[in-house]
Amino acid sequence: MIPIPAIEQADKIAVKRFQEEKLQQLLAYLRVHSTYYRELFRSQGIDWGAIRLLEDLPRIPVTTKDDLHQHNRAFRCVDAAQVTDYVTTSGTSGDPVLLALTDGDLDRLAYNESLSYQCMGMAAGQTLQLTTTIDRRFMAGLAYFLGARRAGMGVVRVGSGVPELQWDTIARVQPDAIVCVPSFLLKMVEYAEANGIDFQGSSVKKALCIGEPLRHPDFSLNTLAGRIQRLWGIQLFSTYASTEMATAFTECSHGVGGHHHPELIITEFVDADNNPVPEGAAGELVVTTLGVSGMPLLRFKTGDILQPHYEPCACGRTTMRLGPVIGRNNQMIKYKGTTLYPPAMFDLLNDFEAVENYVIELSRDEFGEDEITVRVGAAHPTDELMAKIKDRFRAKLRVSPTISFAPIPEINRIKFPENSRKSVTLIDHRR
Description:
The radius of gyration is 22 Å and the shape is globular. It has a 6-stranded mixed beta sheet, with helices on both faces. It is built from 12 helices and 21 strands. 32% of the residues lie in helices and 22% in strands. Helix 5 packs across helix 6, helix 8 (182-194) runs parallel beside helix 9 and helix 10 crosses helix 11 (383-397). The chain starts with 11 loop residues before the first helix and ends with a strand. By secondary structure, it is an alpha/beta fold. Strand 5, helix 8 (182-194) and strand 6 form a beta-alpha-beta unit. It has helices at residues 12-33, 35-44, 65-70, 72-75, 103-119, 139-150, 163-173, 182-194, 223-231, 342-350, 383-397, 408-415, and strands at 85-88, 98-101, 127-130, 154-157, 177-180, 206-209, 235-242, 247-250, 258-259, 265-270, 283-289, 300-306, 308-309, 321-322, 327-328, 333-335, 338-340, 355-364, 370-378, 402-405, 426-428.
């Protein structure tokens, strides 16, 4: 099994000193190679030498996704001849952002995901079934593939969808674990049950789940994960990552948050005004990438609201752990005096086994107030089911959005648009 890096078992003071040394290396690199950050420091009158400690970082303005859009080439620190691979973000909250990776960045990406497999308790010689695409400039599929090679594991690249092909591959290859969107596991179970496949006796014992949450803020399994556990019983591991930060926070078998790798990334948590929140409080995650040479980022705002946890984990790691995403900063909803984020509605709807699929649309009325429309697909849409859903919204979230039934295929066409790499559950018309 891959050993836990020593820095991830060090005390807080040692980790801080380690990261401050890495920060100095990053600043020296940016000062020479980054057109964007040189101009930012010049225009803001920031002395490069004044940024010595982690506490000095708030002196630097944050970097946003809009900055990456508008000044994309200025962020690149290498010429085209040094770029090995180009990736783009998924574009679920705007136009995709182009990022350039060097050979060193790919090595870093491989190291990052090898740590994810280490968190899962996987070892060299085991095999991973990959259901995420490795084409279309998608970083995740590439990262999982490179990480498995780094960890000495075998990979079978099946790609997304097609339960029949997934089960045929499992029967032929006998993989130990699978990387997939958790709701797809339910589709696999449904297909197996309909076709007499002994999924309980299959070789797959673990799943690295991407794209959808598995846990509530208290780390208990949410309805989706609970349903998978009841039906299949394989071990589920959640992960949080983004293309921009090229780093993953993957939970271990204790399931108490995604583990921070301080050798790869510096984290901050800020409020709506970009000020640091009290230690341990939820805030928007701001990251500074370490060891990136193509397009390193300094104080990049992820847009995601998360809560950090600092108690040592029983697995032996002492570094910070990230709780599940509470919501995205730009997706906050103010509905008739109540503030909420879409994941709270996702959890509520996932709690109904009679609900096959759904999509939520956000808009504004003639007075500029937020409106919520929920379209639900169910095999047996009844007045009783509708009443239960409405009652649950009022009881759990204190809101009564507009809810209607729609044909399941119609919602699927909305959820899975052609050429999209991710399913669409939320459509925000407010922008």
